[in-house]
Amino acid sequence: MMTNQITPGFMFATGIENSAPTIQNGKYRMDELEKCGHYTHWRKDFDLVQELGITFLRYGPPIHQTFLGHNYYDWSFADETFTELYHRDLVPIVDLCHFGVPDWIENFQNPDFPNLFASYARAFAARFPWVQLYTPVNEMYICALFSAKYGWWNEQLTTDQSYVTALKHIVKANVLAMRAILEVRPDAIFIQSESSEYFHAENPRAIGPAEIMNVKRFLSLDLNYGRRVDSEMYEYLMDNGMTREEYHFFLHNKLKRHCIMGNDYYVTNEHRVAADGRTWAAGEIFGYHVITSQYYNRYQLPIMHTETNLNQGPNGDEAVNWLKKQWANVLRVRNDGMPILGFTWYSLIDQVDWDSALRENNGNVNPLGLYDLDRNIRPVGTAYQQLIRDWREVLPTQSICLRVPVVLPKEYDEEVGLKNIRQAKARKDASTNAPANS
User: Fold this and answer.
1) pTM of the predicted structure, to 2 decimals
2) Which of the four CATH numbers 3.40.190.10, 3.20.20.370, 3.20.20.80, 3.20.20.10 does domain 11-432 have?
């Protein structure tokens, strides 16, 4: 029998981006897997993950090519790729919805989306029962904001009501998907990849608008984790179409114990705010450590740094320096006593058209990856490979950490994996039967 190979406290990760929002009023889909050549080079991409010494991969099937109708799926590409991940013993953090939905669902204004998505999540979990780690809906805050407030993607709407509608549907979809996956895999762990934001007042007259934005940034996670929102945000939600019944749905869900809070941080995550509410990029002011501490203080959950990157730049070392800065912030978070469990450079290969936030189909290659689109390693890839070598064994013994009870893919059918699953199911049943105030 295999011994239980619980991961040694820290998850070094990368990702292969499966963003697929629509633009041009739904006429064109920005499929990053296609733009970046993954459909052709997926085996090589998995080779590169292992070449870096990485075990954890943020990855998911293209929802628009897989979820073809209610209870109607095309698993052909997922079967190939996930079977390969299983045989390589790579641990996927499965990203089921990344900024887009299939054409037949249309967009995030559709009230049927949450239940439909939950059925998709359940079907995926049943087909790949060895998968344990999930990000059901990626960056819920950004997905709703860009689709239904900024008017950039999908429904391309710009009102507070359209934003609240998208937000409540997206978060409900995430919650229902977690429930559905737990029915199949009771020891599933959910890593919420969410953008960690901060808004800086440009002058005293901007303090009010900045304070509102700094509360609004928490809405997706407040709802997801069943936390009561601030009174001003409650009025905002009610004024813009959320019902009391819908709000209480979120309050009554108690899935937080299954979650790791993923905090994404880019140089674009901090904003300056004018008195009239206009915002623009502030660059890095507080940084990952300060902003993540704010999120941790609010939710008291284990943390993972789930996304960051930077252009390689004209000097060639800008991305390497950013990697080192982010890693220093991760160590600071950890040494301050917050349980941070992982770090992710996102993504494995260069991205395309993120310079326009996927609003324009220009075919611009953005040098953000650990490898370029020819699958040649970039300086930041070499630096990350060395960072992993240096810290993989040292980190768990020299700073505060938790051990995440991850069952490796090939352990799933072994006695030890089944034992973990049985224990998780027993805990779930005990929690379900506990008194309501427990």
Assistant:
1) 0.93
2) 3.20.20.80
